[in-house]
Design goal:
13 helices; two-stranded antiparallel ribbon; 2 strands; mainly alpha; about 0% strand
């Protein structure tokens, strides 16, 4: 059974006959229209709000409320452990999703699971009074985000032919920064009521995923259609051979390095603004919202342009390389910022880079999958490159922040941003050897 989308605001694009080896469903890709993109974006925005608003803002405030002197250590512990659990979940959910024979389809059950976990994570975070409770709540939220991301990314590969994935990739990629800025705006509206700041984004994440799960018609796989599963398939759940799939490996390491830079500014922006520019906790929500709004504005302007140009030219690599270079430049500017206004300029440059990157990267990756007919498992492995930096950066950050520290400047945030910029620039270089995609 091929996938399609039932309620659509416009006519779906014509079904395209499947080229051999591209993993097309029987009868070709449905290439659904506007309504699918809209609800895909809403689900992505909700998932981003539920997962990233805590990472950018509320987790830092909650940790400060639990134990202010140890707040940065608590955040590093919580983020590292929850990111590790999310990393384990990505490929596992991908493998399970590809093999799910539910009459509901193979992606919808994981959207519903993500909604349940977002609810548990939000309530748990609001109720937490100690580090352990905060860790457990963060695990639920992070694993829920893994389930949502696996399902949403796989639906792009399930439903769109390769050369029509640029614009839908832009929609899904932009859902991350848009979700953050909307979530921070809502958090600012209810600030300083911390429980409301936590529960409102989580609730919207639940609604977005449930709504898309209810309305999307998902591909159904029978037991006969499933590929065999044995020891080698179990091992390969967490492994793609770089010798057999070198382009996939180059893309993985490139994404890892670029998201290292994303994690450097995302996880520590609130602390940076509080401790370098001396914003108080009651003001930080508004300041972080403003900087995120600037970042998202840059992304919103350039991502749709990049997605359309990429589809039109059939080229992905130049856009990803340019995005990484722009992003790295923005982080270097953030490292030397001597005022909040300068920091906003740096964030705008970071946003342009992120917008172009998010617009094209998902489309590029879906064209490099070792098994296009079963994309979720390999997309799950690729998503490890997104999440692993969220664990690595907090683990390395205390040591980096301590380098060159003094009584006047006890934490070296500029050096952390420089490390992120260097990682982003190296990530751009690793796109060059990819041969399968132009």
């Amino acid at each position: 059974m091929s996938t399609s989308f039932l309620p659509d605001a416009g006519q779906p694009e014509p079904v395209v006959p499947p080229p051999a080896g591209d993993g097309a469903p029987p009868g070709g890709w449905p290439n659904p229209g506007t309504a699918f993109r809209l609800l895909l974006g809403l689900a992505g925005i909700g998932a981003a709000m539920a997962n990233l608003v805590p990472a950018v803002l509320t987790l830092s405030i909650k940790a400060s409320a639990i134990d202010e002197p140890r707040a940065t250590t608590i955040v590093s512990l919580v983020v590292s452990i929850s990111a590790l659990c999310s990393m384990i979940a990505f490929p596992a959910f991908g493998r399970l999703s590809d093999r799910t024979t539910s009459r509901w389809g193979r992606r919808r059950p994981f959207l519903l699971l993500s909604a349940l976990l977002f609810a548990i994570g939000g309530v748990g975070t609001a109720a937490a009074t100690g580090t352990l409770a905060l860790v457990l709540a963060a695990i639920a939220t992070a694993v829920g985000f893994s389930a949502a991301t696996v399902a949403l990314n796989a639906l792009v590969a399930d439903q769109f032919e390769p050369l029509r994935r640029g614009t839908v990739s832009a929609v899904l990629g932009l859902s991350l920064p848009v979700g953050v800025v909307i979530g921070l705006f809502l958090a600012q509206l209810v600030s300083p009521h911390l429980n409301a700041m936590i529960l409102l984004p989580a609730g919207i994440g639940v609604i977005g995923c449930v709504l898309f799960a209810v309305l999307v018609k998902d591909q159904q796989v029978t037991v006969v259609d499933r590929t065999p599963f044995g020891l080698s398939q179990l091992v390969s759940t967490y492994w793609v051979s770089p010798l057999r799939s070198p382009d996939f490996a180059w893309a993985w390491f490139s994404r890892f390095l670029i998201f290292f830079g994303v994690a450097a500014i995302q996880a520590y922006q609130a602390f940076y603004l509080m401790r370098v520019f001396h914003y108080t906790p009651d003001k930080i929500a508004g300041v972080v919202f403003l900087s995120t709004l600037v970042l998202t504005g840059g992304a919103l302007i350039f991502a749709p342009i990049a997605g359309k140009l990429s589809d039109r030219t059939g080229r992905r690599k130049p856009f990803v390389i340019a995005a990484a270079l722009i992003f790295g430049t923005g982080l270097l500017l953030a490292a030397i910022a001597d005022s909040f206004s300068f920091f906003l300029v740096a964030v705008a440059v970071v946003g342009i880079g992120q917008g172009v990157y998010f617009a094209v990267d998902i489309a590029l990756v879906t064209q490099l999958l070792p098994d296009p007919a079963n994309p979720a498992k390999d997309l799950g492995i690729m998503n490890l490159a997104n999440n692993l930096p969220s664990s690595v950066v907090p683990a390395l950050a205390p040591a980096i922040l301590a380098i060159g520290a003094s009584a006047a400047s006890p934490q070296n945030f500029p050096l952390l941003f420089v490390c992120g910029a260097v990682a982003g620039l190296l990530g751009a270089a690793l796109i060059i050897p990819i041969a399968k995609v132009r």
